[in-house]
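Our consortium's second objective concerns turning raw sequence data into structural hypotheses that experimental partners can test. To show how far this objective has progressed, the report includes one record in full. It was chosen at random from the queue rather than selected for favorable results. The single chain below, 185 residues long, was entered without modification.
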Amino acid sequence: MLPIVAVGHPTLKKIAEEIGPDYPDLKELIDMMFETMYESRGVGLAAPQVNKSIRLFLVDARPYGNEEDDAKEFVKVFINAKIINESGEKWSFNEGCLSVPGINEDVERHAIVEIEYMDTDFKPHKETYSGILARIIQHEYDHLEGTLFVDRLSSLKKALIKGKLVKISKGEVDVNYRMIFPKKK
C-alpha cells in the first residue's frame, strides 16, 4: 500500500503534469493506487495523494450503487483528464478525503460534468457524467489542479476547521492507513 500525503503537503497544492504512455511503471502504479484506495476505504484516489504530481486519478463508485444505478459497475482510470464543462444545478453533499482524515463537510458542486481523458491504453474519451459520478470525478480532478475539498468551503467553515487541519498535518489524527504528514516532528 502506498502512503497517502496529508493536508499541508506541497504535492497537494501543485498543478499536476500530463504523462505519456512511456511513464515508468504506470501499470504498477495504477494497481498500487487501486490497492491503496481499497485498503483505505476510498471511492477515488488521485496520484498527487500518493505524492506523484501527475494527471492520473481512479474511481470506484460501486459503494454508491444502491443509490445510483450508474455507480453499480463504475470503476475507471482517468489519465490526463481535463474538465471541459460543468453544468446543472449545484448541489450539496457531505464530502471527505483520504488526505484530510476525520473531516467531512458539505461541498457544493455542479450536477453534471463533461470530461476529456485517456484510458490506460492512452485512447482518448470525451464523456458526460451526472450525480454522484460527477461529484467524485470533480473531487478527484480537483487534486490534479492543486485543490482540496476544504479549499471550497466558506471562509467561516475554513476558520472553524483550521486547528483540525494543522493537527492532521502534524500527524495528530487517528487513521488506519499509511500517511505522510508534512509537519510531523
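The partners drew two points from this record. Residues 155-169 form the longest helix (15 residues). The chain has one domain: 4-180. Both points have been shared with the crystallography group to help prioritize constructs.
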